[in-house]
Amino acid sequence: MMKELTKAEEQIMQVLWELKQAFVKDVIEYLPDPKPATTTVSTIIRILEGKGFVNHEAFGTTHRYFPIISIDEYKEFATGKLLNSYFGNSVEKMFSFFLKQEKVDLKEADEILKLIEDLKKNQK
Description:
Elements: H1 7-19, H2 24-30, H3 38-50, E1 54-59, E2 62-67, H4 71-87, H5 91-100, H6 106-122
Antiparallel strand pairs: 1-2
Helix pairs in contact: 1-3, 2-3
């Protein structure tokens, strides 16, 4: 079973998903200032490895890390958790919430309606 990521873990995973593979120094380079300590990033990556998100290749005493969970797999997990925990598994309730919060502009709403129409056509 996939585990939820902390904010720091997610930030590092975003970098690894972007880079596809990286040494700790590469990950640090991509993080915003103020840069975390090397030991902090190493520790978080090892935690990610323990959670089954990351694996590594050894090059002597250094390791190159790469994601083994894709960003799409995590998106599916995270949105499913959000949908289940806060919206009673109702996409309608979640969408309604975002509309009320004005998080969806008219262009996005048009695109969503187009997706819905395409889905309807494909289910016929």
